[in-house]
């Protein structure tokens, strides 16, 4: 047990690990320093400690991930040695055909864009989070902004979809207007109880 | 107010001390029918009753009754109801409707229990008395079941709140892995795609197997509701007398009245009656109304 | 490059760390076993090793992250102690809270599943249609079949609910069974009189 220093705040390295674990993009030393309220030089030293630690140079085992400096910031990456395993893993997660659920969600986004996941979910009456992730990963939809009121991310389709459909612009999508003129307030579910 | 992690709930000890009319902090886990619908845990708010034998939150009253520490026959239900109605006046809109419907369940159960409690009981000799007691047990069971789920929902709320604060690693897939994903096989034509959009955006029809052939209703409440809806949507405001003008069959008359109640329950109409047995005025108030609403209406009567 | 130890395969724990690092949802033992081509028992043991390791029980320092079993799978989380710091950092917008009515309906479905809307309504004694749609759109419940007799849609809860509750299986729900034996079973009150 190494609980001997637990009376004080957790070590800087531990706090940085927590921040790095959930960060989606490289973090500059200044950003990290702000996040954990510590001076930059201390953060720099802690980052170096972690880099060595993950590389197995601090007595512990080498980790399956590494802390790398990329584009002016630090981020956790899966270690490159495991790329073969990871590529297989990603492939099994992403089959070459879109599921029916994904296609339907894509169709809703195409006609209703810009649209939030919540709005799509209420139209389809199922949760679409993972399906939207798939579409994002496939580059068929993209984030196009945020709802001014709710702050929800709004999605739209990309040129890649147009290419797949063989059209030049969204205007060429067949009209299905009667359905689109329907009750515009998909927020019936916001207040729904 | 995050419940302790150990998974055990005992609704009989949920809200404060059970010492009769003693002090109650009113911040128990379940606020009974009281808590504001949106706020989730409305501390100390909610419906309180002030009776001769009891003064405190409604939920505690239920607890005491269900624990047999307060005799249901000593509770004036009409007084409880009066207080509830004045409590409702202070609420607004949807909160009011939801609370009212929940109160009705509990009040109806209490009323049944009270009837069972007031009837002479005597020795457990004849089958009738046994049946009476069993009926009372059923009512207790119903009440407790309802409250158990209310209690459980508090646990759900607490856990969800706690989990909201947790942070899992969810990062975008690195470009180098994204690029290794096999090429997408796209087979849909433009028209297929549009057809799919239509399919995806068509409101789902709820599969419904009619039981009409089993209990053929002489008059359909749903059909009568459709009549009432079209009349009210055209006129806006009508008296009930006008709504049933020309109806001669008692069955249609009753069904039309029941459909009015159902429509009120769905918050599609409002009504006012200035004096008991006076003219009943119906008003169309629904912001949104669709065939789907109508299809679901009166489903209780199908059974 | 440190290719000197590349003759042997990297330890299972290291491979799992790499996979966990790029996963964006809880991974079951089977999924992980498939990804790293190892038997499930070995994966289970490796996962346990990592859990202890991150908790500082394996000689090394406690980590700023932890490996949690949630919703039927394993997932990396920032350690709970740091959640306050992280909330400031990520400024995530929590999804809007469920209404009391939705929570109660959810509780009934969780305990009574598979259950039809009609059955839920008879317990809650109010119309639950719109609430069920909200729960469907949130991905917390899903259609699990139809009643053989009535054809009514039956609903059950999803793994996403487990994740939202931070539990791993429905067995971890609090026990309220004594109160739920349907009204057919009046024995439960034998002792109550």
From TrEMBL, chains A, C:
Keywords attached to this entry: Cell cycle, Cell division, Chromosome partition, Cytoplasm
Pfam families: SMC_ScpB
UniProt entry tagged with the keyword Cell division: yes
InterPro entries: ScpB_csome_segregation, WH-like_DNA-bd_sf, WH_DNA-bd_sf
Signal peptide (from-to): none
Superkingdom, natural source: Bacteria
Protein name: SMC-Scp complex subunit ScpB
Organism field: Microbacterium candidum
